[in-house]
Structures are given as structure tokens and as C-alpha cells.
Amino acid sequence: MALVQVFNLMMPLLVYPYLIRVLGDTLYGKIVFAQTVATYFSIFINFGFNVSGAKDVAIHRDNAYKIKEIVSSILIIKIAFWFLSLFVLILGLLLFNVKGNDFWLYVFSFFICLNEVLFPQWFFQGIEKMKYITIINFCLKVLFFVLIFVFVTGNEDFLLVPLLNSVGVFTGGMISLYVIFQKEKVMFGFPSFNIIRTHLKDNINLFISDVVISVKDRFNILFVGIFLGMDMVAIYDLGIKILLLVMLPISILNNALYPKMAIEKDKKLLSKIMKYSFIFYILVTTVLEFLVPQIVYFLGGDNLMNAVTPTRIFLLSAVVYSLGFPLAHNGLLVFNKYKLLLIGMVLTTLFYLFCILIGYTFSLLENVSIFAIITVLVYTFEFIYRYIVCKRENIVVNRTF
């Protein structure tokens, strides 16, 4: 999974300099905005099955009949939700009078949602054969990388970016389904309506959780596009891409230690994770703050040098994240405090919306740096909540640092 995460973050950064120079910041911003809209449909189509599906497959992996029921139910639900989402998208585009190339940009970007339908990562996680995910993901990312350089040669080719991405997603999905039904010998059937309804009912809480998380994590791009324009979306996107890459090590470390923590529930180990992660990110962030101008220039050129200040602000989030993420992943989750974790997500989302409301009311949402500051404040609020709760529940030892 670590390799998959690295591929997913590195490939867009490798393509980024070329697309910015060929398409320009405004067109690239439009693409990012359309893809962000598509991600909200992805959340609905997924409906939490990436989590519950993996768990159910892992539990019943030796029961062929049950695996058939799980796989068939999830695929049928996702296909139905995909077509429903496509209908809603087209209806929305018509209502908002979106025409011409912009219309097709949103439609082609939506086809990326086929990844949620056709690429059953949850199945491969459940049977613990992650090599399939790694190989398919790597090959498709490389293919997309090559096709972009071959076919996207001017700003008139901007529709090819989501289209080529969608073709890659479809190809990967078909290969994945072939592996499931041919190599893994999983049968497909049509489960009863009651079985499908049970799967939907069981996943309501996971779906709500995903929706809550997506508000604070993804709404910023929509707000930046609405309030500041598509060229500013490109600036925001660059800062976020750099931040996500910087935060990746802490995610990989905590995911690697999660099985050990789940078994041993070692509070001292949690404290060590937080302590050394904090020290590491203080050092890394300090170095990167000086290198940001060079990084931004390399990735975006002269047109995106306005991204320097927002990126420097974004990087402060990594320091706070190095403390907050372990508290959630190897703290609250390990000690089965799911309700407290969900409450924290809701409160953090409300705090984020409050910050946006204050910014809008007092006309503060005038540049990307303000949204970067809001991001830092949200991560800080999230950490404070988790730390207070973990102290109260005696999850963290008295001397964490």
C-alpha cells in the first residue's frame, strides 16, 4: 500500500510541470476543479465499501458462496450509483447552463469515477494480495504519463487530460475484474434485494464519515475556484500536492505500525511515534521552507511563483499532522474509540465551515494564503481535540514529549 500511495502522489507531480507549461494555469485549474467535483460523486459511489468490503472479504475469504455474495452485491450497488451520479451530474450541468468544452470537461472527469466501480482494491486488500494493486496502478500511471506527453501538446488538447485518465482507469478496472473472476475464480450472481439493502444499511455510518471528512479536505478547491478563479485553483493545487507528499512518510509509518499497535496497544510506543515524528517534521519543514521557491519554480515555472507563500504556510500543517494522525490512527482507532473519532471529525468540519463563514463575512477570502492559513488552523483544531480526548481516555501517557 505504501508503494501505491507513493505512485499516486508522485505521478501527478511528474506530469504537473509539463501540463502547467502547455495548458497554462487557468485551464489546468479548470481541470482540477472538475476532478474535485468528480471526487464527491466518487464518495457516493464508494459508499464506504472500500473499508467494509475489505473487512468482509477478509473474514469470509474461505467461503466461496459468501465471497460471491459480497463481490456481486458491492459491484451491483456501485454500478447503480455510478449511473445515478451520471444522471445527477448531467442534470446539474444543464441547470447551470454549462456548455461546450466545459460540459465535456466535467463529463470526462466524471468517468474517472469508474475507478470506484471497476477497480476493487477492497477485494485485493481482503485476500491480502496487494501485488495486483501495485502492479496495475504502476503500469497505468506510467501509461498515463507517456500518453500525456504524446497527445497533449497545446492548450486545445486540455480535454484529453481527463479523457486519457478515464481510459487508463477503465483499462485497469477491466484487468482487475479479469483477475477476480478468472484467476481468483470468484463467481458472479444477482443477490436478493434484501441482501443489497442490508449492505447499504450497514454502510451508512461509513458513508457519512467519508462525507464529513471530504468537506474539510476537499471543499477548499471549490471555494478557491468560486471566490478567486481557476488560475488560483492551480496555485492551491500545487501547494496541496507538495504538502501531501511531505505528509506521506507519517502515513506510511503509522500504517506499518498499526498491526503491532492493534495487538499490543502499547501507549509508550504511541508516545515515541509522536515524539520522533514531531522532531522529524520540524527539521524537514525548516529545510523545505528555504527550498520552497526552487521547488515551486521547478514544478510551475514563473507563472506559479505566487504559490511560494501559500506553500510555506501549508507546510506548517505537516508539523501538526505528525502529531494528530498518530493520535487518531494508532490511538483512538486502536483503542476502539470510534465514536470519539467520528465526533472529532464532525467538530473539525464545523470548525472549518465556521472559518470559511468568518472569512466570507469579513471579506477575507481574497487570496490562496488565507485558505492555507485555514488549513493549518483546521489541522491544529483537530490535533487539540484528539490530544484532549486521548488524555482523558488515558491513551497517551503523561509525558508524551
TrEMBL record:
Q: Topology versus the membrane, per the UniProt entry? A: Multi-pass membrane protein
UniProt superkingdom: Bacteria
The places in or outside the cell where this protein is found are:
Cell membrane
Q: What is this protein called?
A: Putative Polysaccharide biosynthesis protein
An example Gene Ontology cellular component term from the record? plasma membrane
Q: Which residues cross the membrane?
A: 27-49, 70-97, 103-120, 132-152, 158-181, 242-258, 278-299, 311-328, 340-362, 368-389
The opening ranks of the lineage are: Bacteria, Pseudomonadati, Bacteroidota, Flavobacteriia, Flavobacteriales
Record's InterPro entries? Answer: Poly_Biosynth_Transport, Polysacc_synth
Task: Cite the entry's keywords alphabetically.
Answer: Cell membrane, Membrane, Transmembrane, Transmembrane helix
